[in-house]
Design brief:
Blueprint lengths: L9 E4 L5 E4 L5 H12 L4 E5 L5 H12 L3 E6 L2 E5 L13 E2 L4 H12 L4 E5 L10 H9 L3 E5 L3 E7 L8 E3 L5 H12 L4 E6 L6 H8 L4 E5 L4 E6 L9 E2 L4 H13 L4 E8 L6 H8 L3 E10 L2 E9 L7 E2 L11 H10 L1 E6 L12 H11 L3 E4 L4 E6 L19 H13 L4 E3 L12 H7 L3 E4 L6
Helix pairs in contact: 1-2, 1-3, 1-6, 2-3, 3-4, 3-5, 4-5, 7-9, 7-11, 9-11
Length: 455
């Protein structure tokens, strides 16, 4: 076997079909929140199905520095010894959240209303991402924030001694910002509210209720106000984490873009505020059935049954963006394999993710021979309905910019393209889906270290 130059470079070869039944790993958003709410509840929370990936491990590590006892009992089964609302200890180390925007921003909220001093840092990608959207409202609640210029990490938060409740209108539709403020509201007297004009994922609200907090949601024609009442006695309760719809999306799209495919993805969260991709794929002509719909710790869950089919281009409105914000890379892959033009609007936030996803998607698709145009906030992808060319023998691998979703999306495209597709680095996949290649290969994909054959 030839030596592998860059062991983190992966290649995905075209395959005839994707078939079988599998369960994607635990939902990343819910895993962070289960650890955090377990940490500030009273008693021992047992979490089943926790995502075991570096983003969630970073949150667990940070909570341990804040005095929380967290133990792995078994595969995906974790115990959190809660310290109660207001019971966090001042950490003696800097909290390093690695690549995790959710971990960093939610924990900023958690510490902002407790009189402790906390230092936050992260990797190069996280240190480029905007934090003022979170730290500005937390400062209004009384926290003192010192950051690098531009509000960037590393930063410190001296939590408020006498926190004050606020009503904050979100400037960007962000569940991370909403959650940070609601978490700060837990150790704040009175009612802390967040107003959103485009609804964002509501896992914090659902889990807060699951732990016994009082959460009020008021909807009117144009906006939604979410309020939490301070000083609840959160009680430890078991949490079942559903499979992550954002991770399941790669297998779903792989099945749609390869012939004779038929898969079942079990126990996936089908929360409507996360299901925008599945709605869009159906509009593109996909057959996706939600079977055995049920609830897991308050979250709607189903088994997804997906078969290969011809996709057509569609227009996706900006208002849908929050419900599929992490799925644009894999939707772009589906669009590249569809017949006609897909127009995606309202993509401004994609520039502030783990990479600038707008240009990362454009660069990768162009390299694979797909017609793509991007504007400030939009993207237009035109497919012929035939497999896209993929990489030429002489072309460089797709540049992932250290972004897990870009890496996984292009490896997914490799399954349905005319030629293999390699990505320059897939190390970032550790952040959300460490077994991605194994999971996809068990369903029939052919993803190997670049330069190796599937054994
Ligand atoms: C997340 C919210 C989204 C999403 C991120 C996870 C969450 O970010 O992109 O991967 O768990 O709240 P924004 O809230 O910043 O849009």
């Amino acid at each position: 076997m030839r030596p592998v130059k860059n062991p983190s470079a992966l290649r995905s070869r075209p395959v005839s079909s994707i078939r079988g039944t599998a369960r994607a790993p635990g939902d990343k958003s819910i895993s962070h929140r289960a650890l955090i709410l377990g940490a500030v509840s009273v008693g021992e929370t047992i979490i089943e199905g926790l995502l075991e990936a570096s983003d969630v491990a970073a949150t667990a590590g940070a909570l341990r520095c804040l005095g929380v006892d967290i133990e792995r009992l078994d595969t995906a089964r974790w115990r959190v010894g809660g310290v109660g609302v207001g019971g966090l200890a001042e950490p003696s180390q800097v909290l390093d959240l690695g690549n995790s925007g959710t971990g960093a921003r939610l924990l900023m909220g958690l510490v902002a209303s407790q009189a402790i001093l906390t230092f936050f840092t992260g990797d190069a990608s996280l240190s480029r991402r905007p934090m003022e959207r979170v730290t500005d409202p937390l400062a209004e609640m009384g926290a003192r924030v010192t950051s690098r210029s531009g509000g960037l990490l590393p930063l410190s938060i001296a939590g408020a001694t006498d926190p004050v409740p606020i009503t904050h209108r979100l400037k960007v539709p962000s569940a991370q910002v909403k959650s940070a403020i609601l978490l700060a509201g837990l150790n704040t007297p009175g009612r802390t509210s967040v107003i959103e004009t485009l609804p964002t994922r509501d896992h914090t609200e659902t889990l807060l209720r699951h732990f016994g907090a009082e959460v009020l949601v008021e909807d009117d024609a144009n906006e939604r106000t979410i309020s939490v009442t301070g000083y609840p006695e959160l009680q430890a309760v078991p949490v079942k984490v559903p499979a992550d719809p954002s991770s399941a999306a790669f297998a779903a799209v792989a099945a749609l873009i390869t012939d004779s495919s038929d898969i079942t993805l079990t126990g996936v969260s089908v929360n409507p505020l996360r299901a925008g991709l599945y709605r869009t794929l159906r509009e593109m002509g996909a057959t996706i059935d939600f079977e055995n719909e049920r609830l897991a710790s308050g979250e709607p869950v189903a088994d997804l049954c997906i078969r290969s089919c011809a996709l057509r281009g569609v227009s996706v409105p900006a208002s849908r963006a929050p419900s599929m914000i992490d799925e644009y890379p894999v939707l772009a892959v589906a669009a590249a394999c569809a017949h006609g033009t897909t127009v995606l609007e309202g993509l401004g936030e994609l520039k502030h993710k783990e990479s600038d996803r707008l240009s990362a998607i454009a660069g990768g698709l162009a390299l694979c021979g797909v017609e793509i145009e991007i504007g400030d906030n939009r993207m237009m992808i035109t497919g012929t309905g035939k497999p896209p060319r993929g990489q030429t023998k002489s072309s460089a691998p797709v540049e992932t910019h250290g972004d897990h979703r870009i890496a996984m999306a292009f490896l997914t495209l490799g399954a349905g393209a005319a030629n293999p597709i390699a990505v320059n680095s897939a190390k970032s996949i550790e952040t959300s889906f460490p077994d991605f290649a194994g999971f996809m290969n068990r369903l029939g994909a052919d993803i190997t270290a670049a330069g190796q054959q599937k054994s």
